[in-house]
């Protein structure tokens, strides 16, 4: 379903992603882990048409983002690392804009929005402005929105960042359910290793722009001779703390301006 | 088409919901009308130029449209920071349609705000000609598209709000002051005259003044054609810059 071959991205002379290859078959939950600044978000951007790769190729649902960006865009739903709702609109309006942008017809999207908003338990709050929602509610809404157009692949870029354990647990339950019921392929990143352990059928660990290990949780444990994913992760990527690029600054800025209510 | 409509609707809804923004945006025009309109009124009359409030009001309306439109365009930065922009950029729609929807929405908001200021000025004694009112609304809308596109273009190349004061100081404020919105453009010093003549705002103010109070410096044809041509150019440049935004 997602196929990356020798995928590379350089910004100036900074190589952020170097010859990354992986293959995610349909219906799989795939965790893409790595320290801050390892190249996770850049890779996701290349998979989702937001960035052009400088080398290598991507196929998503059989389409090349460079040749058929719109087909690729229809094939996936995404929950970004940072909130991407319009907080001055209601929950329903946010869903409706998405439906229209994805070219859905009114008679089709109305019941679909209702169904999804009930699934994430927000239907009763559909007329409320998103700015009055808690961080967890916003995330749930974003997941519902990402699923609105029946995507084949769901990208989740640190979807549980800053959420309490209850909400995290609830979110992963939805996602696991969806994966089982609708066979949706899930590509996720997270810094919570236990989430990846429980959720992912396959895990790839990226560091300094290259994949340093790939396999199931059991395989990674065996390969690194450790007992938990956290230990395996630290063994593979070292203990030094990483610096984050511009994205992090942008996030701080958004928080400063009051967008950090999550 | 649906994309343009839903994004237009988004801007309009947000505007209608923020009463404080509507009222706040009336504050500045109010002070200009009061302080300048009444303050300079007697001098203007003594200089043989007639009723200053009649002269000033279209300028203040134009100012409101300039500021509201630029702000409407600049909102792109806001959406960059709060993430909504990404939601539109990964959607299977062309960037051109996203830009058009936003711009038309911003321009509609600015037009409404401009009309509110006309009403406000009327409370203080401004008496516009009613014969060209519909044409005036069309003119205001084109003007609003021009400046919203400019704002969108600027916002597309800025990454955060830190560059915003520079934009205000060096683009918007001079466009406003050096446009004949507050003084007649006849008999200006040479250099100033040149600046005034290359400023699209000058033609917007002049055209609007012509339509509202029937006094103008340039011909109708000049005002309309400058405005239409420049707004098309800005729309094209704005769309191009918008399409270059890296998420």
Binned strand content of chain A: 15-25%
Classified by CATH, the class of chain A is: Alpha Beta
What is the residue-mean pLDDT of chain B, rounded to a whole number?
Answer: 90
- Structural domain count of chain B: 1
Number of strands of chain A: 9
Please describe the biggest sheet of chain B, giving its number of strands, its sense, and whether it closes into a barrel: none
Distance between the termini of chain A: 32 Å
CATH architecture of chain A: 3-Layer(aba) Sandwich
Q: What percentage of amino acids of chain B are in beta strands?
A: under 5%
Q: CATH superfamily of chain A, please?
A: P-loop containing nucleotide triphosphate hydrolases
Order of helices and strands of chain A: EEEHEHEHHHEHEHEEHHH
Helix share, percent of chain B: over 70%
Walkthrough of the structure:
The complex is a heterodimer of chains A (262) and B (247). Helix content of chain A is 42%, strand content 22%. Chain A has ten helices and nine strands. A six-stranded mixed sheet of chain A has the order 5-6-7-3-8-9, with helices on both faces. In chain A, strands 2-1-4 form a three-stranded antiparallel sheet, covered by helices on one side. By secondary structure, chain B is mainly α. Chain B has one domain (2-243). The longest helix of chain B is centred in the N-terminal third of the chain and has 31 residues, at 52-82.
What is this structure's SSE topology?
The complex is a heterodimer of chains A (262) and B (247).
Chain A: E1 2-11, E2 14-24, E3 29-33, H1 40-47, E4 55-60, H2 69-75, E5 76-79, H3 91-101, H4 106-119, H5 135-147, E6 153-157, H6 165-182, E7 185-189, H7 193-199, E8 202-207, E9 210-215, H8 217-224, H9 229-237, H10 246-259
Chain B: H1 2-17, H2 19-39, H3 41-46, H4 52-82, H5 84-89, H6 95-123, H7 133-157, H8 164-177, H9 190-198, H10 200-213, H11 220-243
Helix pairs in contact in B: 1-6, 2-4, 2-6, 4-6, 4-7, 4-10, 6-7, 6-11, 7-10, 7-11, 10-11
């Amino acid at each position: 379903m997602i196929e990356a071959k020798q995928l590379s991205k350089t910004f100036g002379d900074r190589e952020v992603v170097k010859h990354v290859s992986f293959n995610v078959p349909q219906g799989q939950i795939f965790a893409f882990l790595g320290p801050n600044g390892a190249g996770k978000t850049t890779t996701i951007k290349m998979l989702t048409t937001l960035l052009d790769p400088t080398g290598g190729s991507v196929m998503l649902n059989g389409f090349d983002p460079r040749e058929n960006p719109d087909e690729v865009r229809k094939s996936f739903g995404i929950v970004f690392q940072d909130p991407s709702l319009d907080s001055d609109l209601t929950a329903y309006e946010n869903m409706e804009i998405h439906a229209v942008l994805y070219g859905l017809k009114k008679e089709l999207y109305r019941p679909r929005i209702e169904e999804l908003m009930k699934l994430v338990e927000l239907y009763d709050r559909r007329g409320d402005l998103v700015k009055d929602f808690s961080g967890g509610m916003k995330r749930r809404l974003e997941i519902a929105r990402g699923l609105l157009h029946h995507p084949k692949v769901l990208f989740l870029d640190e979807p549980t960042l800053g959420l309490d354990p209850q909400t995290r647990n609830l979110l992963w339950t939805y996602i696991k359910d969806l994966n089982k019921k609708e066979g949706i392929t899930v590509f996720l990143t997270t810094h919570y290793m236990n989430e990846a352990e429980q959720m992912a059928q396959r895990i790839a660990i990226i560091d300094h722009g290259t994949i340093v290990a790939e396999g199931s949780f059991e395989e990674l444990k065996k390969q690194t001779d450790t007992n938990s994913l956290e230990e395996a992760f630290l063994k593979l990527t070292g203990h030094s703390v990483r610096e984050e690029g511009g994205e992090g600054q942008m996030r701080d800025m958004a928080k400063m301006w009051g967008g950090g209510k999550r | 088409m649906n994309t343009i409509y839903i994004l237009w609707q988004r801007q309009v809804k947000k505007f209608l919901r923020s009463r404080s923004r509507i009222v706040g945006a009336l504050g500045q025009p109010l002070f200009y009308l009061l302080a300048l309109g009444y303050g300079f009124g007697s001098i203007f009359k003594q200089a043989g130029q007639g009723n200053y409030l009649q002269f000033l009001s279209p300028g203040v309306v134009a100012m409101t449209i300039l500021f509201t439109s630029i702000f409407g365009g600049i909102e792109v930065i806001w959406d960059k920071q709060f993430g909504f922009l990404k939601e539109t950029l990964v959607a299977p729609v062309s960037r051109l349609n996203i830009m058009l929807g936003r711009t038309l929405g911003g321009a509609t908001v600015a037009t409404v705000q401009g009309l509110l200021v006309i009403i406000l000025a009327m409370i203080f004694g401004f008496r516009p000609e009613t014969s060209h009112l519909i044409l005036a609304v069309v003119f205001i809308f084109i003007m609003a598209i021009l400046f919203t596109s400019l704002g969108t273009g600027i916002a597309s190349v800025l990454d955060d709000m830190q560059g915003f004061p520079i934009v205000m100081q060096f683009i918007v404020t001079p466009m406003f002051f050096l446009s004949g919105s507050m003084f007649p453009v006849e008999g200006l010093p040479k250099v100033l005259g040149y600046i005034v003549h290359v400023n699209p705002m000058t033609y917007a103010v002049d055209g609007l003044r012509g339509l509202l109070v029937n006094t103008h410096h340039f011909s109708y044809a000049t005002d309309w054609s400058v405005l239409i041509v420049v707004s098309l150019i800005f729309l094209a440049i704005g769309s191009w810059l918008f399409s270059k935004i890296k998420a």
